[in-house]
Q: What sequence folds into this?
């Protein structure tokens, strides 16, 4: 049996008529940049995620960078974040001339350990940049309290968590800005790159809109600040608007798939995902831990099952960020997670038979390779 990590072809086949029609309408309109589909999508995503404003940009990475730039992060500033995530979270801090300051993760949720953040605050700290990893929100109320008490900006990297909630609050309800990604494999994915900045502060929204069009305001050729060329294009917005009404069902299917894995993998050596109290998880990834991770991944591949390691090397140990001065042992929870995590297929197009097969192969591996 073949079990892909994602199945974008199946998703397209289910919606092809609507998607093809939406794309054709954009082509016929001749309006490809910042058209009505972008405007409507911005409003729809903002409403879904609990924000007043949405500003579509070219990628999730740009959503992070423009969020930080809009609140004035720059040279000499420090931004507290996690070492266990996709590289863009650190990359954008460095590109702005600021310094990433890492805090280790909670080993159960893989999110930043909020109880360790205040020890990392210095007079140069300007912002917190937590990540809602694998589809589960960080502790927003704790983060907001820290931000308020220390006069910091709270910028949420929710690239993997659209549709997630915490005690009934959606991802962008708390914080100065929230960044989402529409990369094709995300729970709500475009047919290329795309992202959005969400916020409820009118001035931050104005600055992001200005930055995404080369820093122009008051006319296309009147530049107020150096900016970016970072716009969500009209075709991608039209595709995303077709998909958006299905997101809730897709996320619920992911939760159903996760629950079945939980039942089937009980009693194995796999350490199963933990959902923090009050969280509604979207399972962008279903990530287990296993002491024989590399051997298990190879075994599953031999049996037709695609998996992935998110992430094999924490950011503080990456060559690109050696200049930050961190060393192995500085963040032991992140380092151990990088050695043990393995993401299994959890996408909404999975069949029950495929999930059962994956779980059976994990058990078979352990029977053949006792630890």
A:
């Amino acid at each position: 049996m073949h079990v892909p990590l994602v199945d974008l072809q199946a998703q397209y086949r289910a919606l092809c008529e609507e998607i093809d029609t939406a794309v054709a309408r954009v082509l016929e309109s001749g309006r490809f940049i910042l058209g009505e589909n972008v405007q409507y999508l911005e409003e729809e995503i903002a409403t879904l995620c609990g924000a007043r404003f949405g500003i579509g940009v070219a990628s999730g990475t740009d959503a992070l960078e423009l969020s930080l730039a809009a609140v004035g992060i720059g040279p000499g500033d420090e931004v507290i974040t996690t070492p266990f995530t996709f590289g863009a979270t650190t990359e954008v801090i460095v590109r702005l001339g600021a310094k990433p300051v890492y805090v280790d993760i909670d080993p159960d949720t893989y999110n930043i350990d909020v109880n360790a953040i205040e020890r990392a605050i210095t007079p140069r700290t300007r912002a917190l940049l937590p990540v809602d990893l694998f589809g589960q929100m960080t502790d927003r109320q704790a983060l907001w309290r820290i931000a308020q008490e220390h006069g910091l900006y709270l910028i949420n990297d929710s690239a993997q968590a659209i549709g997630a909630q915490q005690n009934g609050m959606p991802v962008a309800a708390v914080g100065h800005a929230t960044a989402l990604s529409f990369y094709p494999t995300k729970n709500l994915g475009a047919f290329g790159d795309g992202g959005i900045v969400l916020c409820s502060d009118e001035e931050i929204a104005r600055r992001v809109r200005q930055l995404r069009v080369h820093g122009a305001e008051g006319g296309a050729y009147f530049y107020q600040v150096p900016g970016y060329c970072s716009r969500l294009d009209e075709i991608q917005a039209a595709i995303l608007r077709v998909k958006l009404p299905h997101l809730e069902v897709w996320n619920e299917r992911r939760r159903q798939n996760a629950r079945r894995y939980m039942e089937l993998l009980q009693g194995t050596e796999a350490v199963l995902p933990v959902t923090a109290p009050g969280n509604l998880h979207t399972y962008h990834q279903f990530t287990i831990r296993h002491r024989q991770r590399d051997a298990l991944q190879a075994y599953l591949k031999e049996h037709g099952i695609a998996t992935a390691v998110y992430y094999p090397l924490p950011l503080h140990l990456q060559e690109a960020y050696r200049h930050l001065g961190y060393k192995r042992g500085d963040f032991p929870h992140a380092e151990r997670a990088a050695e043990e995590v393995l993401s299994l297929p959890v996408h909404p197009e999975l069949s029950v038979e495929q999930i059962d097969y994956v779980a059976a192969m994990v058990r078979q591996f352990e029977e053949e390779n006792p630890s």
